[in-house]
């Protein structure tokens, strides 16, 4: 059986406070600094800004 891989656009997936929290929690669970940095980079690519926290009322 072959698994099909797909490309995910972080801007589409990280559109809520809950999604961002889960995404970062998964990254921190690895305890891998490189993985955490990569996840933070994906937040930047998705257009996440601190002002979004107010929008989502986290």
Description:
This protein has four helices and no strands. Helices cover 62% and strands 0% of the residues. It has 58 residues and is mainly α. The mean pLDDT is 78.
As residue ranges, the low-confidence spans are: none
> H/E element string?
HHHH
Number of domains: 1
| Overall geometric form | globular
**Mean pLDDT across all residues, rounded?**
78
**Percent of residues in beta strands?**
under 5%
Tally the beta strands.
0
Question: What is the CA-based Rg, rounded?
Answer: 13 Å
Largest sheet: none
Helix percent reads: 55-70%
Question: What attributes does this structure have?
Answer:
58 residues, mainly alpha
Summarize this entry quickly:
The protein is mainly α. The protein has helices spanning 10-13, 17-29, 33-45, 51-56. Helix content is 62%, strand content 0%.
Write the layout of secondary structure elements.
Elements: H1 10-13, H2 17-29, H3 33-45, H4 51-56
